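Intended use. Records like the one below are meant for learning the mapping from a protein sequence to its folded structure. Do not use them to infer anything beyond what is encoded.
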Amino acid sequence: MTEERLSALIEAANASNLTIDLLEALTQGLSRQAFLRVMGNASSMPSYMKSSDSPYLARKAKAPSRESL
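Structure written out for the chain above:
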């Protein structure tokens, strides 16, 4: 692994909260241009989110109770 590739992986990992080894696995075998494109867009990749941080929590509807049916 070249120093340029490693520094790009570290930078993308910091921006995206993804791990370096995951980014390395995702980009393994890509051309330099494709690698740089993925690293440039790494911060927009979805990452792990705890269920308590769900953006859809406000839209969560409760099922009607048995008594109301």
